[in-house]
Design a protein that fits this description.
The protein is mainly β. Strand 10 and strand 11 form a beta hairpin. It contains 3 helices and 14 strands. The strands form 2 sheets. An 8-stranded antiparallel sheet has the order 13-12-9-10-11-8-7-14, with no helix packed on it.
């Protein structure tokens, strides 16, 4: 291949990549409602296993996703930009947007119509928001609003957080505060006396394996949905205990 041909091929490939990126950023249609909480936030533990969402930094900007969006928990941690559209009574003027993190599952209710109460019925695309976040895009008096959404990069402060739990035969880690993709698709763990050990998804973003790593510094290798891998070496010291949380590196 000559130099000119190589240049042309590279430009075509670059253009193709731009098209893919543009498609990833396209707005899609869905609906949204909100969960009424006394402080305007979703703070209870959801299907992603994050626990108190304020402690994991997600807070009011959290959302439960319908089945097709939740994708059996693989979407936990992903970030979405939402804006209310096409409703002159309920959408705020100018259609402001809000960034949400997927933290829970909105279960279907096939006893109700998909247009009234069964908003999360398959294959509906629906977001169950906190009241405080909902109020940033629509009037609180609204029951359900039409929205547009798109995946966006997650902006996080600090590094990935690894919360340890288990016992002498069972090791589990909850991974939170994941930047960029937000989604974790694979995890490996390593002690000072082991090689890299693949972990399985227990539920949400809880990952587990049957091994005793007590008395060893622990390292984690995390793979995001884009395929990028990040290793945090000796993130937990040899004297770590179950119930502790440690901070590692961050995707950049």
């Amino acid at each position: 291949m000559g130099a000119l041909q190589a240049t042309v091929f590279f430009l075509i490939l670059l253009k193709a990549c731009d098209v893919v990126d543009a498609e990833d950023d396209e707005w899609k249609t869905a609906t949204a409602t909100y969960s009424k909480e006394t402080d305007g936030s979703i703070i209870t533990e959801g299907a992603c296993g994050y626990g108190d969402l304020h402690k994991t930094s997600y807070g009011k900007h959290s959302a439960g996703l319908s089945s097709i969006l939740f994708n059996k928990g693989s979407s936990c941690g992903a970030c979405y930009e939402l804006r209310c559209v096409d409703h002159i009574l309920w959408c705020l003027q100018g259609s402001p947007s809000v960034i949400l993190t997927a933290t829970d599952f909105c279960p279907p209710n096939y006893g109700l119509s998909a247009d009234y109460g069964g908003w999360c019925n398959f294959p509906k695309q629906h977001f169950e928001m906190s009241e405080a976040a909902f109020a940033e895009i629509a009037e609180r008096k609204a029951d359900k609003v039409p929205v547009q959404y798109r995946r966006v990069k997650c902006e996080r402060r600090g590094g990935l957080r690894f919360s340890l739990s288990g016992n002498s035969r069972f090791f589990q880690v909850l991974i939170t505060n994941v930047g960029l993709d937000g989604e974790v698709v694979a995890v490996k763990v390593k002690g000072s006396r082991t090689g890299w050990i693949p972990m399985g998804r227990n539920w949400g973003q809880n990952w587990q394996c049957n091994i005793n790593l007590k008395g060893q510094p622990i390292s984690f290798e995390v793979t995001a949905s884009s395929g990028r891998t990040l290793a945090s070496y000796a993130v937990a010291p040899a004297n770590w205990q179950f119930g502790q949380t440690f901070e590692g590196k961050q995707f950049k």
